[in-house]
Amino acid sequence: MKLIRLIAWFVAPTILFLLASYVGAPGLRPLMGLTPQPRPARSGTLELAVLDDASGQPTPARVELLDADHQGYIAQDALPIDGDCVDRVIPADYTLERAIAVMSKKFDNPFTKTSQFYTVGNSVVSLPPGDYKLKLRKGPEYDLQERQLHINSGETTSLTVKMTRWINMPQQGWYSADDHLHIARPVKELNPFISKWMQAEDVHVGNLLEWGLSSRFHNTLQYAFGEGGLYREGDYLLATGQENPRTHFRGHAIILGGKTAINEPQAYVIYQLFWEEAEKQGALKGYAHFGKIEGAEYGLAIDLRGNLLNFLEVLQFEHGVYDVWYDILNLGFRMTPTAGTDFPCLPTIPGRERFYTKVDGPLTYDAWLEGVRTGKTFVTNGPMLEFGVNGKGMGDEVLLKKPGTVMVEGRARFDPHREIPTRLEIIVNGETVKSFPRKGEASEINFQLPLEMPQTSWIALSASGMKTDEATGNFPPFFGASSLAHTAPIYVTVQGTPPLQAQPRAKVLARKWLAKLEDLEARLQEDQIQYLARPAANDGVDADTLRKNRAALLQGIQSAKDYFTNLAR
User: Fold this and answer.
1) Residue 207: inside a domain
2) Is the dihedral angle over the CA atoms 107, 109, 113, 117 positive or is it negative?
3) Do residues 349 and 246 both lie within one domain?
């Protein structure tokens, strides 16, 4: 009996331990002095459906899904995306499979500092049990949608969110565009992916720019230019453009709507050749980056006199920089304002800075180009602008037989959940002549008033304020993100008064641009040219190329000097 008791003394605990561990009998665990070990919680599933409220159909959107610790979660079936700002010696001529392999389903938003993803309208997300905050965005015309939800272990939660509009610009004939996207399309099979991405940001015209340097022109490779490079889904278009030429002392040029790629490798610094070929092809020509970065003011000083330029990017990098554009207008040149993000070369979101173009009739790429060509645009990162003078709209001309009064009307509309413009201003010849503040909690600023026009002038509207749903800005001066918008001018021609180019302001500006031309002329002299040169990999042009093209450059500079000298008299 003693032997049996001894065996039982040693064996019983083992049996109890095995029962507690493998059978899971909770009543036995306290007998062993064991702490219960919780089983790992099973993931839950969110089935998300995103519908357009008007059509009831699935619609692409950008999704933010955060847990209590502000960690973002990405859907397994998120739309793959990828920008391309890499300078490659050998072009990235990928197959569809290779292109998708290097794309990402996660988007790190530089403004909210959160991880997000794009859905084509239906997504499935595996989530640990807990509470989540969901936000959906679809460009500035749609309301921000927010939901709180709880995910249970092992359960599927189905959620349908309808995207509603607070404004419908296409119904009024206005279509959004980003003129500066670096998104590669080496094969046309990528079109549906990129189009859904642009639809998620509600960018109706996405201009995908292949870009070059003096040594090569194949970065952000596009499979075709012209008609072959156009892709359409409903009222959303993708088109090939080019940011070429780009040099460190004449600026970055953009050509939109070219039928073929335009390049002059032996005369890369002679932009006139690019403009003339683009003109033959019916394309639009302009300068990027406010006309200020990488010596663009030198390029503009040479090129303006030819009247071949159509547009200037004035809203980008979270800032509206209008001074060079105002100078151009005050010199008597009619220049359309545009906006673009330069995604992904700097941290931003496609379409965050955009412009709207008035299109007569159905949206086609040719009709859109014509709207830009005729100056029917406004730039914005949120507010929507309306503007008229004597019943005429942006880009139009009002004729007065003599000095008199015009009736100016304006309105800025906005979504107070995302931004609050604090003022709407009337700009005449680059100067603010009247400012209208926001009243109370209103979601718009509007006015109508008579304005004296003593001489030929241009008039525009500008709105400014603050974003309310973003962190501080990414670019200097790093204050809170700004809410900005600006219209194209309406030109008021008063018969019997001097045209803009003959007014005193233009004479002062002409002398300013003459000084730029003289400075560049000096830098092209033999004893200075080595200091002007820069390695090609950094938008540069080497000294040998500068020497080969110096005569043509100096000829262009001299023609521009002659023009501005006459203007300054």
Assistant:
1) yes
2) negative
3) yes
